[in-house]
Amino acid sequence: MSFRTSPSADYVEDVSPGRGTLPPRARYAASDAQSLSLNGNWRFRLSATADAEDDSFAEEGYDAGDWAEVAVPGHWVLQGDGAFGSPIYTNHLYPFPVDPPHVPTENPTGDHLRVFDLPSDWPSDGGAVLRFDGVESCARVWLNGTELGEFKGSRLPHEFAVGHLLKPGGNTLAVRVHQWSAGSYLEDQDQWWLPGIFRDVTLLHRPAGGVGDFFVHASYDHTTGQGTLRVDSDVDGRVTVPALDIDVATGESVTVAVEPWTAETPTLYDGVLATEGERVPLRIGFRTVVLEDGLIKVNGRAVLFKGVNRHEWHHEKGRALDLETMREDVLLMKRHNLNAVRTSHYPPHPAFLDLCDEYGLWVIDECDLETHGFTEQDWRDNPVDDDRWTPALLDRAARMVERDKNHPSIVFWSLGNEAGTGRGLTAMAEWIHERDPERLVHYEGDWNCRDTDVYSRMYAFHDEVEKIGQRLDGGTHKRRELPFIQCEYGHAMGNGPGGLADYQELFEKYERLQGGFIWEWIDHGVKHPELGYAYGGDFGEELHDGNFVCDGLVFPDRTPSPGLIEYKKVIEPVHIEGDGANGTVHVTNKQDFADLSALAFEWSCQVDGETVESGSLAVPALAPGESAEVKLPEPPADGRGGERQWTVRALLADDTSWAPKGHVVAWGQFAAGARPLPSFPATDRPVREADRITLGPAAFDARTGALLSIGGVPVGATPRLDVWRAPTDNDEGAEWQTDTRYGTLWRTLGLHRMRHRLVSVEAGDDALTVRTRVAPAAREVGLDTVYRWTSDGERLRLSVSVTPQGDWTVPLPRLGVRFGLPEADAVEWFGGGPGEAYPDTRAASMVGRWRSTVDALQTPYLRPQENGARADVRWVELGGLRIEGDPEFWFTARRWTTEQLDAARHRTDLAPGDMVWVNLDHGQHGIGSQSCGPGPLPRYFLKAEPAEFAFVFSTTR
User: Fold this and answer.
1) Dist. CA 382–CA 812, nearest whole Å
2) pLDDT at 638
């Protein structure tokens, strides 16, 4: 006798979007109808499989007193100190067998219970709707013992009609959430897999005659300055906009003079949609989005996107974000000159879009769809090309569009990300185009642009981008007629991204290139008691992609990284360049819509990095695209004869909603005189005394030529040639990159283990010369290096000459000297700052006098790597020494060696030693963005070729 059993949770593997939910509709933030938040602490029980427990927990009166508790919104794996499982990070590999629509029997399932009472003033008439704004990945719902249905689509809203089931007190809401479901195949989005009810749960009273779905159409005619408003509503009512003296019935159009909405000038008009039973506030922005003349135009003008991709992330709460965290994101974006955001790769919490409307950001709203893992099997069985999945795809598209359609900030609907191609995507595009012809459709995977209104790519190299700008890229006829954007570029993983200024130069040169979106906004580090921040693999995942999840412009705590500071400078809306010789400054308004009336300009004059005089600068209120030459005042008299320069800043003239008066929007800096190089006659001669050689203020080891001290300041390790840096994520590159990954080649060549062979120590009449050969074991290439020490009695000059020997086929990571100081803390320097800079990430480096500490010089990348170099340094003071460069140099100082930095995997692996290690670099190799993009451009290579450079040491004590 044989028998078989079937799981009781068949719906988990059903490809349909679910059952029992109401049709999607417009979301609105408030109304005069009552609502009840069900957020808070819920009872929680975790099971190992989808069918481990029966449904009895959903019955009224069920005793869950011995259950744990979790916070809703929240993810259970980020609560309970590991008792409820752990996060999993993969970039694109599914963390389960690819066998659609099936998922593993081991399927963590969280039963959630919430018992609630209705407020005493809850209306007794009308109906009610239970709304879930986000649950990952599949939920089954009961209220008071009655099953309501189930749904998939983690980052999308789902509603149930529940008015007939409510009672005044003791309502039992039960939700069973499965980590894996058929829907998981559609949500492979390069982020942590985090199950739970992670967005709001709300009970909404629905009064008789209340507002249903509605669509605000608010266009703008740039030729007349008039806007046309029409609000289509399922329920008849009236629309009023007091500031515009509008009072019309729903479905009727009215045209009036308005101020248009743009990301630069986000004018919103407050209105009300009133039906018989409800009043809903409206925030109306008038704007028109068209594809015209092969360009994306808003209100008649082409726009240039200076954007970023934004996953939702909080280092403790995962994707459960509150309003203030979302506001912090928007304010940071505005303060750093960003004007656009792509909601990668799903619709965000709806409150984020309210903020984009209010503060002004262009939005690409992206559907909750990615099937990237199917690339491992050449896209075989990809759901987007399987008709069985098309209803689920259309459901996801509809839930995005219907929820978000009344946001003026949204200019594109995106079908999803990295889901290949297929009939399902075409069906989505057709539905969206028909439902909302007033916006454009985006999808990067459609290289032939069959279904889309823009040619979109990710991580295209600079040379290809230029060909696209020149319309020399080929492709279908339709594609050649469309504008181009980089929906992802500038992979901000670790130190970098480099080459942003070079991309921006192309975007501004060719009108077809309408900008791009940096990948991405925030490092997805999980706060961890031992590691500081955890990334992929730190929770024991069998498959993971390491710190590839840490690739943001801000650190997990939302501290801006050097990459964000660089991006702010690269995309600044005002270009300022000057000619110090004739005392003029050239100012260009690079905005698309706003003039410069909101900005005030100021000048300052520096001598040797210190400001000696400053004042205001009269700049006309230039229209977008206009330029002006402005005369600077006569330079102030100063008898020091030092290096002179001008700095001109553009600042907010008044407080705004996103930054205070005086906030620096843009700046420019230019020389007004040459720098006098450090030099002196070599008047002292080396003197040998036993095992020491003295030269001016310095003492050397007579046998090795090693520097021991300068003017009583001990030197713990002598300066010697250093070419190694702890490879950055962008040095290492990604294994799928087609261009050369130099980080790998450096290590193969052995640049991390260079040997120093002493050739000779020569005490001459006016110099101590130390000759060495620096080379890696097992290789014939080397660097003949000569250190020549001279002195005038008070100062000490080190001249370094480097001559490569052999066939060097790779560039060097760095070229300079490294030495150790037993004591150093405070640091002052004249050069680029205040933050780090490298050859292709130095746009934001402002020359001036800066102060810091050794610890504060470090950039805390989540995976330790080369960081903290200051560029264009004239001199630096630390540890009792003053070091001047001929020519300017890079310097770093840290309490661990480069080798220790290289070996570390988390910040907490780095422990301060008993030495401060100082690098004085003549050159650094560029950074690029090869962690997922191009490496450095050839002009930023540090080639192995003959070089000479010098440093002058003196004491500050």
Assistant:
1) 44
2) 72
pLDDT on residue 795: 97
Cis peptide leading into residue 157 (ω within 30°): no
* Residue tagged active-site, from 366, 370, 466, 488: 488
Decide if 418 is catalytic.
yes
CB count, 10 Å around CB of 388?
13
Give 508's pLDDT tier (boundaries 50, 70, 90). very high
pLDDT digits (tens, 9 = 90+) for 330-341: 999 999 999 999
Residue 277 CA to residue 207 CA, distance in Å, equals: 6
CA dihedral 332, 858, 567, 599 (to 10 degrees): 60
CA distance 320 to 70: 13
Distances, alpha carbon 745 to alpha carbons 270, 468, 507, 752, in Å: 60, 31, 32, 11
* Beta strands 947-955; 881-894: pairing state: antiparallel
Active-site annotation holder among 418, 444, 572, 643: 418
- In this prediction the pTM is 0.97
Tell me how far apart the alpha carbons of residues 184 and 647 are, in angstroms, rounded to a whole number: 53
- Please report the sign of the dihedral spanned by the C-alpha atoms of residue 657, residue 658, residue 661, residue 665: negative
Q: Specify the DSSP class assigned to residue 164.
A: G
- Tell me the per-residue pLDDT of 179-216, one tens digit each, with 9 for 90 and over: 999 999 999 999 999 999 999 999 999 999 999 999 99
Q: Which residues contact 523 (CB under 8 A, 6 or more apart)?
A: 313, 533, 549, 550, 551, 552, 554, 555, 556, 561, 862
Contacts of 549 (CB under 8 A, 6+ apart): 89, 91, 190, 191, 192, 523, 524, 525, 535, 536
Residue 132: which residues within 8 A CB-CB, separation 6 or more?
139, 141, 151, 157, 158, 159, 175, 197, 199, 201
Strand partners, 128: 205
Phi-psi label, residue 890: left if phi above 0, alpha if psi -120 to 50, beta otherwise: beta
Compute the distance between CA of residue 828 and CA of residue 876 in angstroms, rounded to an integer: 6
Helix (H, G, I), strand (E, B) or coil at 954: strand
Cis? peptide before 101, omega within 30° of 0: yes
- Phi first, then psi, for residue 384 (nearest 5°) are -75, -5
Report which secondary-structure segment, H or E, holds 425.
helix 423-435
Strands (E), 529-643: 532-534, 574-579, 584-589, 599-607, 610-617, 627-631
